[in-house]
Design a protein that fits this description.
CATH class of the largest domain: Alpha Beta
Strand content: 15-25%
Low-confidence stretches: none
Largest sheet: 4 strands, antiparallel
Structural class: alpha/beta
Number of domains: 2
Helix content: 40-55%
Radius of gyration: 23 Å
CATH architecture of the largest domain: 3-Layer(aba) Sandwich
Number of helices: 10
CATH superfamily of the largest domain: P-loop containing nucleotide triphosphate hydrolases
Distance between the termini: 40 Å
């Protein structure tokens, strides 16, 4: 069993929710040290370093200390560190939490690159757009229980109306009572915004055109709509 466990660990890459890089080591020293845990020799590890640094977009930071790196750089280095043993399966816990949009986009590109190499990724995320963009199969978990599991398009098709119109502005309640309830399949109000879920949005949009004081956004339903419908819109601590 210990030998099997060791072989399994050699095929795994782990990206924890919080970066745990060694602050006493430089960028390359962090990578070399982690590689040594898998028995990778110095010469072999040094041959892997250029590709790992390129993956993390840290080619010019090889000898930098961890304190010199931004949060996004540290996150990318943590991801590169998980790849030192060339794993078949990479597990990522909220890989882009707290990052700015540019850093998130770069990490998304890197994750797609790993998928293109034939690696399997398992990730947890609170960003529904991230799950919808990256994953071909999703499990929605609430309070430790899997509610549903399927591909993003299938979940949207099975659990939510295809069209969503978000409405806000003065006289919203009066318009809702007179028109929205009759023209939408389902209506929910969250704060000052009314969410109208429709099979066919044509009549509802015509009504809004006759009420210029109201503002609205028409869009296709997405995974976040499914998540909120299944788990509720109450604030979670």
């Amino acid at each position: 069993v210990p030998a099997q466990a060791r072989r399994m660990r050699e095929r795994l890459g782990i990206v924890p929710q919080f970066d745990n890089l060694d602050p006493d080591f430089s960028v390359v020293e962090n990578l070399r040290t982690y590689g040594s845990f898998f028995g990778i020799k110095r010469r072999e590890m040094d041959a892997r370093l250029p590709a790992l640094l390129a993956f993390a977009a840290l080619e010019g930071k090889a000898d930098a200390s961890i304190s010199e790196l931004s949060g996004g750089m540290q996150r990318r280095l943590t991801m590169a560190r998980a790849l030192v043993n060339d794993p078949d399966l990479v597990i990522l816990d909220e890989p882009t939490t707290g990052l700015d949009p540019q850093a998130r986009q770069l990490i998304w590109r890197r994750l797609r690159q790993l998928l293109g190499q034939g690696k399997t990724l398992i990730l947890t995320t609170h960003y529904m757009d991230e799950a919808e963009r990256l994953c071909d199969r999703i499990a929605i978990v609430d309070r430790g229980r899997i509610l549903v599991e399927d591909s993003p398009p299938a979940l949207i098709r099975q659990h939510i109306e295809p069209q969503v119109v978000e409405v806000y502005g003065p006289q919203l309640e009066a318009w809702c009572e007179e028109f929205a309830q009759a023209l939408a399949s389902r209506v929910e109000q969250v704060g000052e915004t009314l969410f109208c879920y429709c099979e066919d949005e044509t009549a509802l949009l015509h009504s809004l055109a006759d009420h210029p004081a109201l503002h609205f956004l028409h869009r296709r339903a997405n995974l976040e709509d499914v998540f909120l419908k299944l788990t509720g819109k109450e604030l979670r601590e």
